[in-house]
Amino acid sequence: MSASDDASDVPLDFPRRTTHGVVAGIQPKVCAVLSKGRYVAEQTDREREERWEICEDLAHQLVPKAQEDAAAHPNHDANTTLVRVRDAVARKSWVSSDELNWLMARLRALLEW
Fold it and tell me: What is the pLDDT of residue 21?
């Protein structure tokens, strides 16, 4: 799924990265990126939008996987299936823990569980 260049497409509940990079060395360093003509030491709107696009796409890809898992294990309730999917995604380290929380809530909504 692709969002427009306007970060307003990103849901308000989508997490914003709050940790900053650490650079080794004797001199103190600030990790920053040039965004719209100024240096910022936080996640830019575009970076956040990119992360949301990844998570939104992943949520849609996980819908059939969760449905297949639920069909393969009819004795599992929806929560058990979601925990199994969550564990599988967590092992891949594709998303941060905050993004994973959002992703699982989004998957639940897409599945209407």
Answer: 62
